[in-house]
Amino acid sequence: MKILVTAGAGFIGSAVIRHIIQNTQDAVINLDKLTYAGNLESLANVSDSERYAFEHVDICDREALDRVFSQQLQPDFRALLNWICRARCTSELCCRATVKRVVS
Asked: pTM higher than 0.90 for the full model?
């Protein structure tokens, strides 16, 4: 199974990716814009895995998302784990708006 993880270079996303690669047979495609919160060094111990792929993508870039979906996710795509949220976000609204942009 292939799992798409958004904000996978962030604190939570990178922990989830490390867990998936180290404890399952699933593949992970990490989509991250690499803003101030992204740190690829946190994924150094899984970055050489053939089941891990990184895509430097802004989820607001529809062309880039279409490319990732057509090249990376077919045919085994089964899950989207969204970890994108603004720092100091005081409500779920900012996170929900981000998810809506990804899936709509």
From this structure: no
Give the range of the structural domain holding residue 38, as residue numbers without chain letter.
2-103
Residue 26 has φ and ψ, to the nearest 5°, of -75, 155
CA dihedral 72, 75, 78, 82 (to 10 degrees): 20
Cβ atoms of 46 and 22 closer than 8 Å: yes
The strands making up 77-82's β-sheet, listed across from edge to edge, are 52-56, 27-32, 2-6, 77-82
How many structural domains compose the chain?
A: 1
Find the CATH number of the domain harbouring 14.
Answer: 3.40.50.720
Dihedral angle over CA of 99, 6, 61, 71, nearest 10: -120
pLDDT in tens, 45-76: 999 999 999 999 988 888 988 888 888 777 77
Residues near 27 by Cβ (< 8 Å), separated by ≥ 6?
Answer: 1, 2, 3, 51, 52, 53, 76
Q: Which two tokens stand for residue 94?
A: 């900012």
